């Protein structure tokens, strides 16, 4: 059995995750749960778990404080959060995975199955590469804040992101558009390692939706949009083309 700890400040969310794990994964043994940084540090120190589900926003701080405080890190971490902007910080702590709320039971089961398969791999490099591969998977999602709502969107559905002043228009392949609250720089930072390319100052494209490229100056997307490549980005485009060959 694999000993598991859940650190989540929302008790309903913690109970929901616990039920999903008990129902779908017989190999896991939930040894305890906590809602704060202080409780989390104590629980990990006393129970020596092999796998920790860790929320980022806790009642008395953030989950990363727990990882900084725990000296012995003989466990893997799967972050669970409603925010999509922490994956780079998660990689700094070599997280095994990163799940967005609300948790998808099918994706959760897939992640656990993968954890069990690679349980014997302990090197930091292999964990980092594994996490990067997951981030780039086509079924990976992000949460896009639009007005008062957060919309969950598959990366493969996004064709491009266009700057709109202090906002960003997210263009989807079903021809729908989402006006996101964040500026384009936010999505450039978030998606640049996930198959997206900053073509110019006002446009970020999903490279999986490139239909053709004309003279390394114009990118034609699968929806027919033609995007001019900024001169300073053409060398990077050449590198991208070599990578995609």
What does this structure look like?
This protein has 245 residues and is α/β, with parallel strands linked by helices. The chain contains 8 helices and 17 strands. The chain has a 5-stranded parallel sheet with strand order 2-1-3-6-7, with helices on both faces. It has a 5-stranded antiparallel sheet with strand order 12-11-10-14-13, with helices on one face. Strands 15-16-17 form a 3-stranded antiparallel sheet, with no helix packed on it. The longest helix has 14 residues, at 11-24. It is elongated and about 60 Å long. The mean pLDDT is 83.
Feature tags:
245 residues; alpha/beta; five-stranded antiparallel β-sheet; 8 helices; 33% strand; elongated
| Structural class label | alpha/beta
Q: Number of DSSP strands?
A: 17
The neighbouring-strand order within the major sheet is 2-1-3-6-7
Over all CA atoms, what is the radius of gyration?
Answer: 20 Å
> How many helices does DSSP assign?
8
| Order of secondary-structure elements | EHEHEEEHEHEHHEEEEEHEEEEEH
Percent strand equals: 25-35%
Which percent range fits the helix content?
25-40%
Q: Averaging pLDDT over every residue, what do you get? A: 83
Largest sheet: 5 strands, parallel
Euclidean distance between termini CA atoms: 44 Å
What is the approximate shape?
Answer: elongated
Residue windows where pLDDT falls under 50 for at least 5 positions: none
């Amino acid at each position: 059995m694999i000993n598991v700890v859940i650190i989540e400040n929302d008790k309903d969310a913690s109970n929901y995750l616990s039920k999903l794990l008990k129902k779908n994964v017989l190999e896991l043994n939930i040894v305890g749960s906590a809602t704060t940084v202080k409780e989390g540090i104590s629980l990990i120190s006393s129970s020596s778990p092999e796998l920790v589900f860790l929320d980022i926003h806790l009642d008395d701080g953030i989950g990363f404080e727990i990882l900084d405080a725990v000296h012995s890190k003989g466990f893997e971490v799967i972050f669970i959060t409603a925010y999509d902007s922490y994956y780079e910080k998660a990689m700094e702590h070599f997280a095994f995975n990163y799940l967005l709320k609300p948790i998808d039971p099918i994706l959760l089961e897939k992640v656990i199955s993968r954890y069990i398969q690679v349980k014997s791999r302990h090197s930091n490099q292999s964990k980092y590469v594994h996490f990067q591969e997951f981030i780039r998977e086509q079924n990976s999602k992000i949460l896009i804040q639009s007005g008062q709502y957060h919309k969950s969107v598959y990366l493969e559905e996004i064709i491009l992101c266009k700057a709109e002043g202090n906002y960003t228009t997210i263009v989807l392949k079903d021809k729908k558009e989402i006006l996101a609250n964040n500026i384009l720089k936010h999505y450039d930072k978030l998606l640049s390692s996930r198959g997206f390319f900053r073509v110019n100052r006002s446009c970020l494209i999903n490279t999986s939706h490139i239909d053709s490229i004309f003279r390394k100056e114009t990118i034609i997307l699968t929806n027919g949009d033609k995007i001019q490549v900024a001169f300073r980005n053409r060398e990077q485009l050449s590198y991208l083309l070599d990578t995609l060959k």
